Amino acid sequence: MAALQQANVPRSCASYGADEYSAAAAAAVRDLFDAPDAYVLPTVSGIASDALAIASAAGPLDAVFCHRLSHIRLWQCGAVAFYSGGAPLQPLGGEDGKVCASELALALQSAAPLAAAPYAHRPSLLSLTQPTEAGTLYTGAELKALCALAHDYGLLVHMDGARLPNALVALGASASDLTWRAGVDMVSFGTTKGGTLAAEAVVVFEPAASLGGGAADAQLAKRAGHELSKSRFLAAQICAYLADGGGGVPLWRSSAERANASAADLARRLEAAAAGYDGDSFRWQHPVQTNQLFLSLPCTPRGDALVRALGTVGGTPWDSEEEGRQCVRLVTAFDTSEEEVAAAVGALEAALRGE
Amino acid sequence: MAALQQANVPRSCASYGADEYSAAAAAAVRDLFDAPDAYVLPTVSGIASDALAIASAAGPLDAVFCHRLSHIRLWQCGAVAFYSGGAPLQPLGGEDGKVCASELALALQSAAPLAAAPYAHRPSLLSLTQPTEAGTLYTGAELKALCALAHDYGLLVHMDGARLPNALVALGASASDLTWRAGVDMVSFGTTKGGTLAAEAVVVFEPAASLGGGAADAQLAKRAGHELSKSRFLAAQICAYLADGGGGVPLWRSSAERANASAADLARRLEAAAAGYDGDSFRWQHPVQTNQLFLSLPCTPRGDALVRALGTVGGTPWDSEEEGRQCVRLVTAFDTSEEEVAAAVGALEAALRGE
Amino acid sequence: MAALQQANVPRSCASYGADEYSAAAAAAVRDLFDAPDAYVLPTVSGIASDALAIASAAGPLDAVFCHRLSHIRLWQCGAVAFYSGGAPLQPLGGEDGKVCASELALALQSAAPLAAAPYAHRPSLLSLTQPTEAGTLYTGAELKALCALAHDYGLLVHMDGARLPNALVALGASASDLTWRAGVDMVSFGTTKGGTLAAEAVVVFEPAASLGGGAADAQLAKRAGHELSKSRFLAAQICAYLADGGGGVPLWRSSAERANASAADLARRLEAAAAGYDGDSFRWQHPVQTNQLFLSLPCTPRGDALVRALGTVGGTPWDSEEEGRQCVRLVTAFDTSEEEVAAAVGALEAALRGE
Amino acid sequence: MAALQQANVPRSCASYGADEYSAAAAAAVRDLFDAPDAYVLPTVSGIASDALAIASAAGPLDAVFCHRLSHIRLWQCGAVAFYSGGAPLQPLGGEDGKVCASELALALQSAAPLAAAPYAHRPSLLSLTQPTEAGTLYTGAELKALCALAHDYGLLVHMDGARLPNALVALGASASDLTWRAGVDMVSFGTTKGGTLAAEAVVVFEPAASLGGGAADAQLAKRAGHELSKSRFLAAQICAYLADGGGGVPLWRSSAERANASAADLARRLEAAAAGYDGDSFRWQHPVQTNQLFLSLPCTPRGDALVRALGTVGGTPWDSEEEGRQCVRLVTAFDTSEEEVAAAVGALEAALRGE
């Protein structure tokens, strides 16, 4: 893939100079989102994207709402607090990694009377992850409802879209329908999970809506060491990722489709393998909707054996949501092969047979 | 009381010069806590005390555990994050404002394997409030257990003691028994609630245990504008508060005793007034153990009337812990008079009679 | 003086409740500055005042210009960076503690083309000290010119007025003429140097001009632990300081007049004492214009003896501006007595005589 | 070059897996510096390298000394303050971009008595740039003297080595001689200027000497979004840059040699072209020692014409150090061609002839 990527770069962008690469990448991103006026800032990591986007709209006195499982809360060592100067994350609950609308409503309702109180943070931003940390999906209607609720209380909405292409493909929806048309104000758009080396982008649909607009974003990026002197490298990756990947299908789409299809195939075959052992093997901790599988297994010797078997084919121990059970995560990618799927199924089958 | 305070100052500390005031105040605090080597830093507010104490032990990469109702989390607009450079507060549950030991154990246990992970904050400090935000008390044994648990995982323990004298009096325990002898490493000791104008103190029992020890505390206080050029003023207040307040009883003790006694009296008489209307009037949201009363009332027209009546005698609407109910807080002080207690009881009685 | 102060408090403000104290203090400050719409925030220290004022107008991406000798640069351990999230101080030169207008012009001119560059801080604020750290004064015309220059480049102007009353008295000018009528947008107004225990105030003439206006100031003050639960104490001090101090003259004025007069008297008598030893004794490092005297002495055995002699009457070693020379600072206050002046003169005389 | 680079990558590191790439890069860096125990952290930008390195040794209460022209001070929008939580940069003077040893000595001497004062920042780090911002060089002896001075006062020494290879080649010295053997404690080692796409590295020679050692560095990098999920990409670039670039000469060396040689050639030919116009054309603002040329020209119509001519061949207007003169910077690179050199000389010649 890296080779294809490299080969693609000259082909699709060869005649561009440094600035033209960046302009082409920004244009391609705007095109994908059908947002000709969007501000686009390429970055090298999802953490940088999330933190720069959120900090453009939230300062030390603001509060940011997010799901309790969200990446910005659990996996970034306080990047949002770092970039924003201390904005706290207010965790919300909700099944399968999705923010519960009524819990959000309650939280915003409780906070509203305190908006003028000097001791309270002002709720300023809602951050949603699509697909979620649990691999599940918000429908367009669900997004609209959450965004409307947030906007009613004066919050902006950020979307952590590190794996957004997987959602677009799974829901058969356009990038604009799942973002600004639903009310999302800014997106961290990831391409690294989809096959590039390291290229993400902050996309702000209404620069005026954020604190400092594009100017502050660029300045903050500079200050954080995220402005590359040779940014054409980032841009070229984004160009290639959004360009035709063969047969008239953009690379991002074919990559995401393959990853999702592998996951669906793997899920079906794992279920089939376990069918005869019902109740005694695994169940899904979250429904399989994109390219992540979360298997919930009992904390028993048999469960331990299954966990070990899945570990040999790339399964990672994960937080269990239920007492007395454990969890393993499997992730498929654009380049997951039929053999890898078969190997995972085989490993489970062997363990089930007690081998 | 302010007058008494002012009169006391010259009497108890008159012959001291500027530095001698501060030395006398520090000595008095060390004496109270039976901690001759403690580091003592006077401040003008509880927020400053809490933030300076916690920031001396927790930096941007550390995590601070506290009860979800704690003052540092709900009422300080992110002071801990400000002073520490971004240390996040990890809220814990627990009945009646007290941190639940098993929930803490679970949280520390989950976090332990991540100690070396770059994406995770390192659990570094547990902050306990005594008496709690719900006016309840940790016993010495409960404190010991929580501190031992925290120390087992390498955390320091901070105590928010803005109302500590009320706890000392209610539990009949010494200041040392409820702090360092129980494992507490640092205390924010408040005197303002007890009658001074504005005087609190950071007390660190083992300066060496904290990041920078006293030096960093003083420097941070300076940087935050909390070093007063005429600090003898703060010191004089602390001197007076810890000195004999009449009859051989220190002022802090008699003040706290009066506040607690008034609260107990008020609670008893409110209960008696409501006895005939049982089930139809109020119940305690939290047990009354110090000088704060939390009345839980139904969300009914009758409940509303009671809330209004209590509002006329100083009751404040408070967060209810139960759906379908509302809460009112009443606080007694060192100078709450018999008449004020009677007025509160009378207001409730009248409302109960439907007047 | 502290006693007088305390006695004054009940007399002048006795019938006010908590809020009325604060309202009265704010009204008195607005009255002094002839600025009925000014935002007034009492604080306990000059550092807090300066940092809160500046941080209301300057964030991490802004630059603050100030004299290289300014208190915010040399004596506050980075308070401005702390409160603003990192705004750097850009030091300017200038004789006798006064910002050199042409150096400022050059700096702003150089910075202007970089305003849009992501790598550069945006010049946002000029902070002037009146009287300066060298005890000297900006005339009204000088202030106007500096403010006009700053405003031309889009900067706001802050005045560190920790000793502002000494300037008002020395220049015979009104508080408004030396602040907003000259173009100053916000002042840290000090009263502690003038005799109160610990009371300063942020005064913002055009709240709308600053980033967050009064709301952000109050929130930031809360977050920093500078909101006192019993703020009437601060307010009462400010009331007393701005009220009639006897004979129809406000206390601030009589205090400042006495301090300045003592300084002038002391300067005259020190010069007289040294007259016979011309060239061999001291000269002024800065002209004596308010209540601070800076004596420049040679780095010789004789100079050392004079420094020692001045040390016995309160003189402090200070940074010398000239190689081969040393400096001693003497400060007079509202309560400097005739005896103290005579003692200082006597000490110098004895040392000059070689005793 | 980028193509060569890419081609090199698989060749030199092809058989390594992800972790092996990183291990190989770290080993190659340690080898270059003859420092088998050094901590190596790859990053994507020089700003990130500098800020991460410095912040590992300097917190909010520390002060960092650097040349007034240094990149960390003028070109990074406060990155050091951002990463360190507010450490101020203390600018030092010195000819040709080199820190003046006696000015440093004076600054450290003045600061020493304040080390215990709460109002002062503690001098903690000296940052030197090699080659300097003026393209000049510290000799090994000069570095040793500056480092010894810094160490005497308890400071650590950081080297901004964004163009370090140009210095190694110009001085004919080893990487260890110009760093840890001279007393440098940590280096930001750049490869981007030398031809890679975006790859720099923090190199800490004595991890124990810095505040948090490698652990804090990695955590801070994570928090800032500088940990790449696919870090093998960075590693591969570093591998290729440090590996044999042909003929047994490492790529970094041949790249730097070519850049320096082009600069020397260009300087010689520009001087020759201007010989006939002596006094009327240009002089060097700084001696040409590596690959940067700074031409000082008069602020006259003729000078303006020369500036315009140089602008057509890549010259950039630069800060002039002298009143009445202006400056243009020319930089050569590893891939500067003979034609480009000739074009620059031709442009100057034509302008001198008044064409």
Automatic annotation (TrEMBL), chains A, B, C, D:
| UniProt xrefs under Pfam families | Beta_elim_lyase
The alphabetized UniProt keywords are: Pyridoxal phosphate
Residues forming the Aromatic amino acid beta-eliminating lyase/threonine aldolase domain are 6-273
Q: Annotated Gene Ontology MF terms?
A: lyase activity
Query: What Gene3D superfamilies does the database record attribute to this sequence?
Result: Aspartate Aminotransferase, domain 1 (3.90.1150.10), Type I PLP-dependent aspartate aminotransferase-like (Major domain) (3.40.640.10)
Report which superkingdom the organism of origin falls in.
Eukaryota
- List, separated by semicolons, the cofactors it needs: pyridoxal 5'-phosphate
**Which GO BP terms apply?**
amino acid metabolic process
Name the family: Belongs to the threonine aldolase family.
Q: What is this protein called?
A: Aromatic amino acid beta-eliminating lyase/threonine aldolase domain-containing protein
